[in-house]
Amino acid sequence: MKAGIASIRKELAGIFSGGEVESLIFLIFEKLRGYSRTQFLLASEELSQEELLQINEIVARLKNHEPIQYILGETEFYGLSFYTVPGVLIPRPETEELVQWIIRDFNRSAPAILDIGTGTGCIAISLRKNLPQSTVLACDISPICLETTRRNVQLNAVEVSVFEYDVINQIPEVSFPELDIIVSNPPYIRETEKTLMQKNVLEFEPELALFVSDEKPFVFYERIADFALIHLRKGGLLYFEINEAFGSECLIMLQDKGFSEIILKKDINGKDRMIRARLNKSSNSQKFRAQLFLYL
Question: Which helix (H) or strand (E) holds 255?
Answer without folding.
Answer: helix 247-256
